[in-house]
Amino acid sequence: xxxxxxxxxxFRALTSYITTNDPKDGLAKFHSxxxxxxxxxxxxxxxxxxxxxxxxxxxxxxxxxxxxHNELVSSGKLGIVNPHGSVFGIVEMGPGNxxxxxxxxxxxxxxxxxxxxxxxxxxxxxxxxxxxGDSVVQRATKHAWRNTSETEWARxxxxxxxxxxxxxxxxxxxxxxxxxxxxxTKK
Length: 187
Fold this sequence. Notes:
By secondary structure, the chain is mainly beta. The protein contains 1 helix and 14 strands. The protein has a 7-stranded antiparallel beta sheet with strand order 1-4-5-6-12-7-10. The longest helix is centred in the middle third of the chain and has 12 residues, at 64-75. The mean pLDDT is 90.
């Protein structure tokens, strides 16, 4: 997977703004502004990691969370799920693009369509089409995504949070990335 500030879609380029508190007077200020960095997930898909946390209740003291985020992203080890933490990001899918695999992440994912239209299909065969402003709460279920347009790009925002081990009907619902095991967080 290659990483670049060049995005594949024709959408407006994104910038992330990180705030902090001035240690001298406690007033809020902008710490940094960061242009999007896209990681390709195939010929017509890319992911922009906006921010991560690496513990369930992150400490913001001394900007430790910012340092931890920067180290994790630059390490190249971040996958879809950050163990004991969260990943906040944007996914872009090209026209007609379908996630080529049914997959499950060990996570609680909050997703919102912000451009285009995206279909979510579950391993039961059920599916729903999400349009701009629609959201999905993905609770460690096996699923696949598809951009429903053959001509337009789609963009979705996600917050992915690590979860405790999930057991349903005596079976552990663990991570299942199929042929895309490269999307798992590396140790």
